[in-house]
Amino acid sequence: VYRLRGEPLISIVIPSKDNEDALKQCIRSIYAHTAYRNFEMIVVDNGSTEQVRMGLENFRQECPFTYLYIPMDFNFSRMCNLGAQRAKGTYLGVQEAKGEYVLLLNDDMEAVEDSWLLRLAGQASLEHVGAVGAKLLYPNTSLIQHAGIANTVSGPGHKLKKLDDSVSYYYGRNRFIYDLIGVTAACLMIRRERYLELG
Questions:
Q1: Which long-range contacts (CB under 8 A, 24 or more apart) does 34-37 make?
Q2: Number of neighbours of residue 117 by Cβ within 10 angstroms
Q3: Which end of the chain is more exposed for a tag (fewer CB within 10 A), N or C?
Q4: What DSSP character marks residue 100?
Q5: 87: CB partners within 8 A, 6+ apart
Q6: Structural contact between residues 124 and 36, judged by C-beta atoms closer than 8 angstroms
Q7: Do 137 and 147 touch, CB atoms closer than 8 A?
Q8: Is the pLDDT of residue 91 over 60?
Q9: Among residues 48, 35, 27, which one has the least CA distance to residue 119?
Q10: 27: exposed, middle or buried (C-beta count within 10 Å: 0-12, 13-18, 19+)?
Q11: DSSP one-letter code for 68
Q12: pLDDT-derived band at 99, boundaries 50, 70, 90
């Protein structure tokens, strides 16, 4: 576990469309289970219905977040890029991400452990580290959805997928922090300067 220097702002970018209930659960869980409080949330919506849009606008009173409503064809990487752009004034009348770190997060994720954001940022702060991911479990189970990406006989794949997290595998591959060839953008943190450097 690595400590951050100071308290840098973390921009949490969540692409979403017409997934109101899951998105609200995701945002509520972040506010309820995040000890590190210097974060901002940017939801990038590529064209939800008017009913969902109004529901999310009202929800911002309960859990504050920036809401970028940009009707367009689905393009995950473009939505992430729009949410992560450095603030240079405003975009569509909304201030953009200002964080030193960017966290890309799916709208169906749920935070369940208070130190998660600080641990991700601590790893991302290391000079030799590119992207950082988290162990993800399937809803309401102890089954592993993601514990990093590794090369397999059929190509890159999710390590330990669908194995029970109550068991320790391969010298703690689901317990400890390891270097891997990749992580999923369902929950991916990276330093902003590295994100921009990669284009």
A1: 34/111, 34/114, 34/116, 34/117, 35/114, 35/115, 35/117, 35/118, 36/7, 36/10, 36/115, 36/117, 36/118, 36/121
A2: 24
A3: C
A4: S
A5: 95, 96, 97, 98
A6: no
A7: no
A8: no
A9: 35
A10: buried
A11: E
A12: confident
Is the per-residue pLDDT at 93 higher than 80? Answer: no
- The pLDDT value recorded for residue 90 is 45
% of residues, the chain, pLDDT over 90: 80
88-97, long-range: CB < 8 A, 24+ apart: 92/68, 94/66, 94/67, 94/68, 95/66, 96/42, 96/66, 97/11, 97/13, 97/40, 97/42, 97/192
pLDDT beyond 80 at 97:
no
- Coil, strand or helix: which one is 82? helix
Measured from the Cβ of residue 125, the count of other Cβ atoms closer than 10 Å reads: 18
Asked if residue 61 has pLDDT above 80, the reply is yes
State the pairing for strand pair 39-45/10-16. Answer: parallel
Task: Report pLDDT for 9.
Answer: 94
| Confidence at 86, pLDDT banded by 50, 70, 90 | low
Q: Given the structure tokens 């308290």, which residue do they identify?
A: 7
Runs of H (alpha helix) within 33-166 = 50-59, 76-84, 116-124
Alpha helices in the chain (DSSP H): 20-32, 50-59, 76-84, 116-124, 192-197
Region 39-57: mean pLDDT is 96
Instruction: Please determine, for residue 92, whether its predicted confidence score (pLDDT) is greater than 80.
Output: no
